[in-house]
Amino acid sequence: MAALVLLAAGFFVVKGTMPSLFGAKVSEEESGSADTSFPAVIRIKGGLLEVASVTGERSFAKAIDPQFAAFALEYCREKASVTVPYKITYRVRVGERWIVSIYRGRLIAKVPELEPSLPVAINTAKLRRGAMEKCLFVPEMGAMDRALKSISPELAKLANNDRTKDFARPEARKTVAEFLRVWALEQKAYPGLAPDAPITVMFPGE
């Protein structure tokens, strides 16, 4: 067994570190993009107000162990990673009822919860693939493909995470307050409201 481990270690390489005589050239004639289904327009009931966004860069990694006779060969593990910039956009539903009241010259509004726009937007032009590690004598097992496919579901979890929403909430309050100030000044129900009246925005649970 020790001999097998040493043999595997001897063939262990990091893909991309060896110089190659072969290159690649994009064929412009057979490259491009095209619709694979008829485009559809979907109406969002009540509309959504974009109130804040969170941007960052995140790495996604996957590791796969080859198996022989039901035994995982950890010393020949295939590893792959990809790093990509993302932008999470949070919205508030305008169609739902907003509870608005006036108290001592202050406008108080209870608004719906923040909703992330899914799937989360990523900048594929700045996507970076890390060096893939694998054993030379073992065929590729799809670690890179799995890393790429994990981007959308992992970012969806991040967007729906309470910590991420709390991080975006202060800026979201400012946007909602700006929207309410313009809206309230146009309402006849609040004739005595000063143009510079303070506004308090409350989300569910506050």
Describe this structure in words.
- There is one protein chain.
- The protein has 206 residues and is α+β, with helices and mostly antiparallel strands.
- The protein has helices spanning 2-11, 143-149, 151-160, 162-185, and strands at residues 12-14, 48-64, 67-68, 71-72, 78-93, 99-103, 106-110, 115-116, 121-122, 128-129, 133-135, 199-202.
- Strand 3 and strand 4 form a beta hairpin.
- The longest helix has 24 residues, at 162-185.
- It is elongated.
- The relative contact order is 0.20.
From the helix content, strand content and strand pairing, which structural class follows?
A: alpha+beta
The number of E-state strands comes to 12
Beta percentage is 25-35%
Low-confidence region ranges? 1-18
Number of domains: 1
Shape: elongated
| Residues in helix, % | 10-25%
Rg (CA only): 26 Å
User: Count the helices. How many?
Assistant: 4
**What kind of oligomer do you see?**
single chain
Separation, N- and C-terminal Cα atoms: 61 Å
Major beta sheet summary = 5 strands, antiparallel
Q: H/E element string?
A: HEEEEEEEEEEEHHHE
Q: Average pLDDT value?
A: 80
